[in-house]
Design a protein that fits this description.
The chain is α/β, with parallel strands linked by helices. Helix content is 54%, strand content 10%. It is built from 22 helices and twelve strands. The strands form four sheets. The chain has a four-stranded parallel β-sheet, with helices on both faces. Strands 1-3-2 form a three-stranded antiparallel β-sheet. A three-stranded antiparallel β-sheet has the order 6-7-8. The longest helix has 25 residues. The chain is flat. The structure holds arginine. The site of arginine has 9 residues, from strand 9.
């Protein structure tokens, strides 16, 4: 469909005597929400100024000038819009031919030209268990990573671990005092966070502890080998736990350079800012003023020590030099919006404009549980491990009750349980809060992962029953002419455009909702049009549509980070 869209843009470019460029037109062409308004629509409002006429008369003028080709059946003017209706016979064969030939590559694009895009995501603070919020961050980042890959970018996934700062001086002290009371091998992150809570409490009662912690961190910074060993141990056990989760979620990181990595790279930042004269004193601290409406970005505290923001500035400089990025995307909860505004402003003194424009912060809303019954320790932390286990267990019970003879139930329950979680997280627009309800998430109907996976499984079983040979190229696509067939085909044609839109808007929910739409249209088609019919030609044509649907669903889910079971 992308080709037809380009053709329409070319036709329009000619019709307006090249007063607007093809690229400009292409950007404005929309897919109308209501199918009544055609397959593509071009708003003429922005032409009013250029052509000095009202949008409606412009639209009418253009319509008169347009020479239709065989792919477009008609053009209509509605309130300043030009609506294009495509020839459905043509659509069917164009779309299905390309899906059938491109197969699992359908929707791959080369827009990115191999340019580098950094997706920085997950980035937990080590020595603490993964909670519901981290999970949202991780699945969002992973989906964006995959989308940019589809667009032809070279994507670099960075896990900017929170592995540095004074709290490690405190944790070291706690570990010294309390670790003998625990079995660290059993739930290491639970133990470490427990110890951290205890030593924090103690520090509130005993001032000396804070002094010791400060001293510990100072020694750590200076490279004390004993303390460094301890810190490394904390990092290692944390990563081991996190990697287990990353593996279940299928997400990729190309670098785990976290805050500690920048501990020796901050002097240069301070130096550059100082030389430029933008580092100013503020109550003893060194800050960069970043605008009248927000507080300054603190670079050095009054005791001369660096902070979170200083490490982020060093990271920006390092990433520009190492990755020469087109975009560097950061994903965090909304509570860091101010932090990123401050460092992006301060970074203007460190990097060229072209890189400044590529710095992007994406934030997401909170996650709460509907039923508060999941295991919590501090009354706040919900362990993602427990949630994943429970989701898989519940998925298993559901599929056993539906299909007790299924083989390899463990793999399938994992695909469904984990897939349901990911899908549920990604279907909500990122900025909205999520109220999480596991039972709802695992339903086999409605806007859920299992519903979409089930559509895939159903399509597979239809193809198996029909003994469909996908290598057969002798298919008469003109037989696919019912309303349900045409609507499904049009929806399938939109996968590439949906991936692009979701990536442009940093919003995987666009893809998630699209897959629900495809699944629903597939159901409608399957209810109205029998596939397993006597007539071989019709059966083949319809099977090709079933097959194309299975490809689109599998591709879409994979981009979201969700696997498709072959049976369920
Ligand atoms: N570790 C931080 C946290 O858990 C998130 C890091 C975000 N990335 C960054 N470059 N500051 O809150």
């Amino acid at each position: 469909m992308e080709d037809i869209k380009i053709e329409i843009a070319e036709i329009l470019e000619k019709a307006v005597d090249f007063k607007v460029s093809k690229e400009d037109i292409l950007e404005k062409i929309e897919v109308p929400k209501d199918k009544q308004n055609g397959d593509f629509s071009y708003p003429c409002f922005n032409l009013a100024k250029i052509l000095k006429n009202s949008p409606v008369s412009i639209a009418n003028d253009i319509k008169d000038k347009i020479i239709l080709n065989s792919k477009i059946s008609k053009v209509e003017v509605v309130n300043g819009y030009l609506n294009f209706y495509l020839n459905s016979l043509d659509i069917a064969s164009n779309v299905l031919k390309s899906i059938l030939s491109e197969n699992e590559k359908y929707g791959k694009m080369s827009i990115g030209n191999g340019e580098n895009i950094i997706v920085e995501y997950s980035s937990p603070n080590i020595a603490k268990p993964f909670h519901l919020g981290h999970f949202r961050n991780t699945v969002l980042g992973s989906a964006l990573y995959n989308m940019y890959n589809e667009l032809g970018y070279n994507v670099i996934g960075i896990n900017h671990l929170g592995d540095w700062g004074r709290q490690f001086g405190l944790l070291i002290e706690g570990y010294r005092r309390f670790s003998s009371e625990y079995d660290i091998n059993n739930d290491p992150l639970g133990v470490l966070s427990d110890i951290y809570v205890r030593i924090n409490k103690l520090a509130k009662e005993d001032e000396n502890i804070m002094d010791i912690a400060r001293d510990n961190f100072k020694k750590l910074e200076e490279g004390d080998s004993k303390l460094h060993e301890m810190w490394e141990f904390f990092r290692e056990v944390s990563l081991k736990e996190y990697n287990r989760i990353y593996e279940i979620l299928g997400c990729r990181f190309d670098s785990y350079n976290g805050e500690a990595f920048y501990s020796d790279k901050m002097d240069e930042v301070v130096e550059i800012l100082d030389k430029k004269g933008v580092l100013v004193d503020s109550q003893g601290a060194k800050v960069v003023n970043v605008g009248d409406d927000i507080p300054p970005c603190i670079v050095l505290k009054s005791n001369g020590s660096t902070i979170y923001a200083t490490r982020d500035l060093a990271a920006i400089l390092y990433r520009v030099r190492t990755y020469d990025f087109t975009k560097c995307i950061y994903i965090t909860a909304t509570d860091q919006i101010l932090h990123f505004r401050q460092i992006f402003e301060a970074a203007k003194h460190l990097i060229d404009e072209k890189y400044q424009k590529g710095l992007i912060h994406i934030s997401y809303g909170m996650v709460r549980l509907k039923s508060g019954k999941m295991s919590t320790r501090e009354g706040t932390v919900i362990y993602i491990n427990d949630l994943i286990k429970e989701a898989i267990e519940k998925a298993k019970n559901i599929i056993i009750s539906k299909n007790p003879n299924l083989e390899d139930i463990d793999t399938i329950s994992k695909q469904i349980g984990v897939g349901a979680l990911i899908f549920n997280y990604l279907k909500t627009s990122k900025i909205k809060d999520i109220v999480f309800d596991l039972d709802e998430t695992l339903r086999f109907d409605g806007e859920t992962g299992p519903y979409v996976q089930y559509t895939y499984v159903r399509s597979k079983s239809i193809l198996e029953k029909a003994k469909f040979d996908r290598k057969n190229t002798d298919i008469d696509f003109s037989l696919l002419n019912t309303k349900q067939e045409i609507e499904l085909i049009k929806a399938l044609s939109r996968l590439p455009e949906i991936i692009k839109k979701a990536a442009d808007e940093y919003e995987p929910a666009i893809l998630t909702r699209y897959l629900v739409e495809v699944a629903t249209l597939f159901s409608r088609f399957y209810n109205e049009c029998s596939v397993l019919v006597e007539d071989e030609k019709l059966k083949n044509a319809r099977c090709s549509l079933v097959y194309a649907t299975s490809i689109v669903i599998k591709r879409g889910l994979k981009i979201l980070g969700i696997e498709c079971p072959e049976k369920m």
